[in-house]
Amino acid sequence: MLTRMHELKRVLVVGAGTMGSQIALQTALSGRYEVTIVDTAPGQLERARAQNQKLVDRSVEKGRLTKEKAEQALGRITDSDNLASSAPNADLVIEAVIEDFDAKKSVFESLGRHATNDAILASNSSTIVISRLAGLTGRPERCCNMHFFHPVTVMQLCEIARGPQTDDDTVETAMEFVRGIDRTPVLLQKEIWGFIVNRILFAASEEAMRLLEGGYATAEDIDTAVQKGLNWPMGPFHLLDFSGLDIFYGALNDRRQQGEGGEVPDVLRELVEAKHLGRKTGKGFFDYTTA
Ligand SMILES: NC(=O)c1ccc[n+]([C@@H]2O[C@H](COP(=O)([O-])OP(=O)(O)OC[C@H]3O[C@@H](n4cnc5c(N)ncnc54)[C@H](O)[C@@H]3O)[C@@H](O)[C@H]2O)c1
Description:
Layout: E1 10-14, H1 18-29, E2 34-38, H2 44-61, H3 67-75, E3 77-80, H4 83-86, E4 92-95, H5 101-114, E5 120-123, H6 131-134, E6 143-148, E7 157-162, H7 168-180, E8 184-188, H8 197-213, H9 219-230, H10 236-243, H11 245-257, H12 266-273
Parallel strand pairs: 1-2, 1-4, 2-3, 4-5, 5-6, 7-8
Antiparallel strand pairs: 6-7
The structure holds nicotinamide-adenine-dinucleotide.
């Protein structure tokens, strides 16, 4: 079996949004890779660059990074609005476009046409397992999920999930890459909806909602119990409000369409229908308008 780790030098990140911009930055900060970041929305590459500049400036101010290293890292990132011309130069592609199957499908079809046969093609999707995309590339053995967490420059974990056709070299190289950019990889040996973290988070959140709906305890007390009894940094209801109830609602519906899980809890559906989506709208399980 070929070992390609030493060959992995050029990383292409597709999508310069919340996740893609920071995946590119974290990769560049390692000093090991040249990074290209592609986005097609007008102004997005400039916004991503400005956000990354702000992030490194703050790290320099706090003494976590030298000015020289910060400048070198940003200098390693090249912007592009053209996937077709950038893909042939990449050893590893990390797709981080919007969570929409058709958007990801068009990226993977393009990668099938323009990336080299050896390049590893990874998706940062939170819910779409790689087997739904890998076949579009003509080289499913080189494809895997590479699921980072937000914010990437703070959150250590990255879940690598192998599809039914992903080969060992792809898995090992992906794991080694994640270690090389100072994140911690875990391997999902068989793909499954939600990977590891979201399955556990969703199970806990659904149980919390069952307890609330059954009148066993208030949302406040359930959160306090989880926070103080399990040592979570915040309870499930505060976490759901923080992430956005619409995101969780959408993910539960998607899971149902994939043939897993039960109905969306009424308490969640009612909040979403009333447009109480958590912190971003001022109200969710808790009220933030007076805070
Ligand atoms: N935000 C999170 O907390 C989080 C955490 C883990 C994983 N994810 C996953 O990461 C992915 C990206 O999420 P995000 O929050 O960064 O989204 P986002 O909306 O902030 O960014 C997506 C970017 O992709 C760009 N884009 C769309 N189609 C494109 C194309 N064809 N070519 C190039 N660029 C294109 C958009 O212009 C946008 O800038 C999603 O799959 C999401 O599920 C998100």
